[in-house]
Design a protein that fits this description.
Elements: H1 3-25, H2 29-42, H3 51-54, H4 57-96, H5 103-124, H6 133-176, H7 183-192, H8 196-215, H9 220-223, H10 228-240, H11 243-259, H12 266-271, H13 275-292, H14 306-312, H15 318-342, H16 366-372, H17 378-387, H18 393-399, E1 415-420, H19 426-440, E2 447-452, E3 462-466, H20 470-476, E4 481-485, H21 493-504, H22 518-524, E5 540-545, H23 551-565, E6 572-577, E7 587-591, H24 595-601, E8 606-610, H25 618-629
Parallel strand pairs: 1-2, 1-3, 3-4, 5-6, 5-7, 7-8
Amino acid sequence: MSNSQENKGIGRKVQAFGSFLSSMIMPNIGAFIAWGFIAAIFIDNGWLPNKDLAELAGPMITYLIPLLIAFSGGRLIHDLRGGIIAATATMGVIVALPDTPMLLGAMIMGPLVGWLMKKTDEFIQPRTPQGFEMLFNNFSAGILGFIMTIFGFKILAPIMKLIMHLLSVGVEALVHAHLLPLVSIIVEPAKIVFLNNAINHGVFTPLGADQASHVGQSILYTIESNPGPGIGVLLAYMIFGKGTAKATSYGAGIIQFFGGIHEIYFPYVLMRPFLFVAVILGGMTGVATYSLLDFGFKTPASPGSIIVYIINAPKGEFLSMIIGVLLAALVSFVVSALILKFTKDPKQDLADATAKMEATKGKKSSVASKLSGNAESKSDEQTQAASTSQVDGDALLDKYNTEDVDAHNYNNVQHVIFACDAGMGSSAMGASMLRNKFKKAGLENIEVTNTAINQLPSDAELVITQKKLTDRAIKQVPDAIHISVENFLNSPKYEELINNLKEDQNGSTTTTSATNSQENLTEQYNTEDVDAHNYDNINHVIFACDAGMGSSAMGASMLRNKFKKAGLDHIKVTNTAINQLPSDAQLVITQNKLTDRAIKQAPNAVHISVDNFLNSPKYEELINNLKEDQQ
């Protein structure tokens, strides 16, 4: 492998890591902004001081936001179970260090605990005795949560405390060595992970007080509190940002610059780690400027608001104060703008990398067949998928006919997904627009949603992406139909898609399923006749009941064991509540009295009715059909 290929591989890993950080932080920006408003408005130095309401700010930043981030990180790895246990375990770190918002601890614990929960489930579920599913599921999660909470309290928290101590020692050494601008190399990154208070109040405040008592003012009060670097980043997002990040940056800028709540811009830096360079250089510029102008405050400038800076500025030093803030903001803005404009988002950069098709995990499809040229078996598909690893992005798009809407068959499409980087901004608007078009065209039975590319479900049916991101979407869900557009809000392909859907689904039984009676539904779907269906593409069986926990869990466990004995252990068997059935479910097993509800929830699936989850002759018929059709 050449050095350039190795560098690209390392670069992709770095980009993917940044993408994962963004997926943890981005969904929680609303919580940051809500907390920012409360803190900026109601604290003692806020716009409308209110002692009672100000008490909300502390618990929100100490508990709520770290727990939300931990939940998001855990859920990215292992859905709800991963998120819930990750949030539980993060309490260990929070309680151990209650004076420091544990954003960094949450970002570590979330994915770690989510991954451990996933591995625990993979180990325990195939070994769970029939009838003990709920017991094993609940206790395995509880025990892991217990262990990892102790881990966070006893092991991770001391590590975090050591990090804070080392940062404080480093800053103090630079201060005594008169290398003040270099302090920003430590301070600015420390701020982003909420370790700023340890440095600000543990080092700068006592040293600044001592300095101010001797010379009447101290520059140390400006190092951490300067609002310039933060507003520079947010201004860059306002102009060069995209989607939700851009839309929310305006409110964040007001809170940060006038309210002095710097934490509000931290998520924007975490989403694009290269922006650490911008805030460091902005901070260094501010410190260097104040050093040259011999500027300082008599008392701590808290919160770090431009209003507080104006009030605290010594008589005759107003211009010096403004220059320091403006230059710090200017440098931070310029560097941030360059990063946002000329480097690619961690989630976008992979779009230009060499496309590497993932194996299709044994799930056959016409699209995978086109890619591989052979869909005869799982191993053939995997071999062919691997052989395309050197195909560039454009060639991959050609193979999937992403530009030709008429090239695909839409008979079974019941769910269209718009996918973008964060799954919130542009894709949400595109989904809303197409949903309205579908409604006018009489296609409201087709669900239209939006999501982040890295959260696309493996059984997605039709995915719409902007062209520069389509190859990433293909790698994420190689069995789906993919359509590329230049702009989510203005593409002629939508009308072509609507025409194709109408033509291909004309007379489809699934479009009228919601209006049929229970008897007609079950007859129409042949829920009693196991032999009536084709099982070629089935790789996931779902047992569904009301609660999705008791009888369905036992049925799933039993069939999982039968599949293992029959050599069908590559087929996943899970259980869920009927109202949580995914619209793209493949094969659903329900008790007779609930089958019509399951059909309405997942009209595109194969449905089998049984009298009893634990004792049905249809399971043997199903196994025989699966073996025959997937041979």
